[in-house]
Amino acid sequence: MLSSLSDEEIRKIKTTMIELEREHHELNLLIDQLVRDPIIEELHIKRLKKRKLQLKDQLVRLADRLIPDILA
Known about the structure:
Shape: elongated
Low-confidence stretches: none
Number of strands: 0
Number of domains: 1
Order of helices and strands: HH
Number of helices: 2
Oligomer: single chain
Structural class: mainly alpha
């Protein structure tokens, strides 16, 4: 699919991926910190983990768009 994308589209995808990776990393740090604090509500941690998984899924979909189609 890479060949069907313009340079601008590829740049936008890569920029979005960087932003998503940054947010994913920040969530990971926050979750690690919250897990150590017994006062924090478990539901809040579950929501953060769900968002982290959503970010990972978005990253995978964007990365797939950058991989060229290979004819079998």
